[in-house]
Specification:
The protein is α+β, with helices and mostly antiparallel strands. It has 13 helices and 19 strands. It has 3 domains: 194 residues, FAD/NAD(P)-binding domain (3-Layer(bba) Sandwich); 91 residues, protoporphyrinogen ix oxidase, domain 3 (Orthogonal Bundle), CATH 1.10.3110; 109 residues, Protoporphyrinogen oxidase, mitochondrial, domain 2 (Polyamine Oxidase, Chain A, domain 2, Alpha-Beta Complex), CATH 3.90.660.20. The structure holds flavin-adenine dinucleotide.
Length: 452
Amino acid sequence: MLGAGVAGLVCAYRLTQEGHVCDVYERWPGLGGQAATLDVGGGDLLERYYHHLFTSDRHIVALYDELGMGDELEWKPSSMAFFLEGRQWAFNGPLDLLRFGPLSPPARLRMGLAVLLLQKRAKDVAPFESITAREWIEKRMGRGPWRKVWGPLLRGKFGARAEDISMAWLWSKLTLRRQLEGDEARQELLGYPAHSWERLFDALRDAIVAGGGRVLIDRPAAALRRGDAGDGFVVTAGASGSFRAGHDPHGFAHASEESYDAVAATVPSDVFAGLLDDDLRTAIGGDYLGRLAATEYHTALCLLLELDRPFSPFYWTNIADPEVPFVGLVEHTNFISPERYGGRRFLYVANYLEPGHPLLALGEPELLAAYMPGLRRVQPEFSEDWIVARWLHREPAAQPIVTVGYHRRIPPLQTGVPGLVLANTTQIYPEDRGTNYSVRLGTAAAKALLKT
Ligand SMILES: Cc1cc2nc3c(=O)[nH]c(=O)nc-3n(C[C@H](O)[C@H](O)[C@H](O)COP(=O)(O)OP(=O)(O)OC[C@H]3O[C@@H](n4cnc5c(N)ncnc54)[C@H](O)[C@@H]3O)c2cc1C
């Protein structure tokens, strides 16, 4: 298994359940991939990137139950806002939409109605696969909602590619997640594990190890080839500390080799392509490699601040003001009580950026300096004195760019080489990637591997 994110750990766990012994290679010195945690001090663990669950996330809930950890998940009311025109506008349900000043009253009604109709009637993704979200929104809701709400939201996630994003992606966001009923129609409930995501990773690791496997952190795959007799595979492991060299496996010093009957890779598409030798590239073939090369990702750039006081009243603020150089503020301790962290408060300043964006080159003090005017725009009293500690993380393969026709370019789980499977976030479709879908993907990858 290559990668100890959610998909890799779940895949190895499923294979272990079937009686196979799995080694898991992981580049980072910790488990969980994009959902990995860090110790923010005092033994408190927090995800490097803000994480929560939706009530529609049934695969991961079922996994917690299966592992006897159902009690870990707590469901709490969330609070969401939009920042534009100089203030935060609450945006939690239909009533807030009716009060949403940046849109005219008819535009608010039309937007609400369009979402409602989509949720009630559009049960199939197919009609939305050949149209951009922008085209659909402008047609069904009007230009105002695109300019003030959806355009900024999509630009937040997809940057300059916002106008090319497929309506299929937005369809799934609006229909799968937000079919909220009962009390949830007024205020959405979100889930969070009582002890962060880490316990889930530990439980999966323990099960893999109990089955005779190994979970090797700070031990990336540096290369992959077929066995000398033409059967099985040889994984070349990178030296400890390779993660400091970046993500490209060509930059890793080789440490050791090990042979396996089969390999499931859960690493990003570009990393997977970089692992293959010429023989494997030929065996996989041009069509599959072309799909890997066509993958576009945006990088998550996430500044986590520990503050000595609350920043705003909301958990989640979407920034729709073009003058502000980040896309979201996620105030974790407006969702999970600061008491859990000994009274400490945490705010994520979120960004998704295209590769090569100048903000990605900045260190943490420079980035904070670049963000300060934007932070003050949202909270005019904010000053650096409020900051107790800060951490900066960058994830290059954070967000696959889902443009029109995306479904035709998705690489299948089966690479075409018997015993070699690829399972990563680019194959999650039409849903937005998330830990829930990586649980589903990990299970599907194990099945695909057993079939080859
Ligand atoms: C900013 C941000 C916010 C998010 N918020 C949420 C949220 O609120 N809720 C939610 O459910 N999901 C959220 N997600 C998405 C979620 O974290 C991911 O979809 C999910 O964790 C992906 O799991 P994965 O195993 O498929 O991939 P990854 O987590 O990317 O796992 C791939 C693993 O492969 C490893 N790897 C890379 N190269 C090598 C190599 N050469 N050898 C070995 N290992 C290697 C990586 O280190 C990583 O551990 C968020 C993601 C980001 C970036």
